[in-house]
Write a structure and sequence with these properties.
This protein has 11 helices and 9 strands. It is of the alpha/beta class.
Amino acid sequence: MRLFLISGTSGSGKSIVLHALEDLGFYCIDNLPVNLLPAFAEEMVRVDHYPYHDAAIGIDARNLANDLALFADISDGLRERDLDCKILFLDADDGTLLKRFSETRRRHPLTRERIPLAEAIRRERTLLEPISSRADLRIDTSHTNVHQLRNLIQARVGPDDTEQMSLLFKSFGFKHGVPVDADFVFDVRCLPNPHWEPRLRALTGQDAEVIDFLEKQPYVDSMFDSIKTFLEIWLPRFEAENRSYMTIAIGCTGGQHRSVYFVERLAHHFTSGKTRALTQHRELS
C-alpha cells in the first residue's frame, strides 16, 4: 500500500499532480491537516477491504505553522507503519510563480495581510521547509507545462514497483539555467558542438546525423564511459539507503544536441538493468 504526500509552493502544480494520480486510481485528498495524517494512515492499514490500494494527500501552507513544524515526527511515524510512504515536493523559480499568478489572477494563500506576492512566496518556502527538506522526489516545474507534468508523474510514480529505483535522465541547456531538482549534474560542453555544423544545427541529439557526428568525435565515448561508471558505482549505494528516485541532469550549451544524445544513450544503457530509466529533454519541449 502506497501513500504519497504531495506538497510544494502555490502555483507549482500540486493540483495537477493530484489529478494525475487520481486518474491512476489513487484516492486523493487535497489539503488535509498535517495532524490528521496518522489517523488517515491508520485507517488505510486497518481496513483490509479498503477500495483503494494507493492514496495521495496534498499538504500546503494553509496548514497551521505549528502543525507543519511537527511534520518530521509525523512522517517518521508513518514510515513505521505498513505503508510505502513517499514525499513529493514541487517548486518553480520566483519568476515563473509570479507569472502564473498574474496569468490566472489567483490569490496566493499568504497574501491576506497585504503581503506582496514575492514576499508571500518567500514566506511559503520557509513554512514548507520541514516538508521540502525530507522530500524523496523534488520536481522543478519552471520549464514544464500541464501535459508534461502529468506525463512525468504517471511515468515516475504510476507503476506499483517499490523494489526498483526510478531514474530520470534530463537534458538541459546551461544558458537556460541548471535544473534545481537534479541529484547529479554533468557538463558535456567540452565536447564538439554540432550547432556549428550548418547541416546539423536544426536537428537534435535524437537524430541519426547528430548521433553519427558525435560518435566520431574524440572523447565522446570516454565521457560516456566516465559518467556510466560513476553512476554504476554510486547508484546502488543510494538505493541501499532506500532512495527511490534519482534525477541525473546532463547539460550542454543549448540543450539540443550533446546533452540530448547523452541522455538517450545513458537511459538506454540503464534500462537494461533493474533500474527503471526515464528521459526528459527540457529545452526540446
